[in-house]
Amino acid sequence: MDEIGILPLFKGVLCHDHWKPYYRYKCTHALCNAHHLRELTWVWEEAQQPWGKAMQDLLLAIRTEVMEAGGCLPPDKAEQRRQDYRRLLEKAEGECPPPDKDEGKRKRGRLKRSKARNLLERLRDFEDDTLRFMEVEIVPFSNNQSENDLRMTKVQQKISGCFRSMEGAKIFCRVRGYLSTCRKQGMTATFALRLLFQGKNPAFMDTG
């Protein structure tokens, strides 16, 4: 992560899945709620804890409201939703309590927590990072776009096992990066490649 030369200098908002090494970087953080939705599905369906479904519904409702509001909620609405979020987590404490402290007296180290409890504590302790999308217009609800951009690289590795050379890996990433950027600008891959073979730049790259 350091060698690629982006995150050590990054000063914007980093949206990620709460992998702890990301928090080493001194930037603003936001948590991917697509990951939260998947984990909450497990809490509801497998652990049989209703708070998982309620939190899932709340996050999706906030996402819809943010989209309808044009990218972020007004301060009064955001504060209302923040209070809804906190009340739901307080209720969740009854359904998913912390480990028995008496058990900790008989064992050394941190008490083991269930997957549901770990998620609850993350949502509680990283409230600002979880809800940043509703108050800051540039912050997305999830980091799925970045994962989509990386997916073809991982598919290539899965099929071939590896890249045969570093130069080949760089060429692959350069082509995929070009196509991904063109797609985000509303351009089809076919048209983007045609321009490339003609030695022309897409209009959005024309600085003249």
Question: How are the secondary structure elements laid out?
Answer:
Blueprint: E1 13-16, E2 28-31, H1 33-45, H2 50-68, H3 75-95, H4 101-104, H5 115-125, H6 127-131, H7 144-160, H8 166-184, H9 189-197
Parallel strand pairs: 1-2
Helix pairs in contact: 1-2, 2-3
Q: Terminal Cα separation, in Å?
A: 34 Å
Biggest sheet, in brief? 2 strands, parallel
Which class of secondary structure composition applies to the elements?
Answer: mainly alpha
Number of strands: 2
What integer is the average pLDDT? Answer: 89
SSE ordering = EEHHHHHHHHH
Key phrases:
single chain, 208 residues, mainly alpha, 9 helices, 57% helix, globular
What's the gist of this structure?
By secondary structure, this protein is mainly alpha-helical.
How would you describe this structure to a colleague?
The chain folds into two domains: 7-134, no CATH class; 144-205, no CATH class. The chain has a two-stranded parallel sheet with strand order 1-2. It has helices at 33-45, 50-68, 75-95, 101-104, 115-125, 127-131, 144-160, 166-184, 189-197; strands spanning 13-16, 28-31. Helix 2 (50-68) runs antiparallel to helix 3 (75-95). The protein has nine helices and two strands, in the order ββααααααααα. It is mainly alpha-helical and 208 residues long.
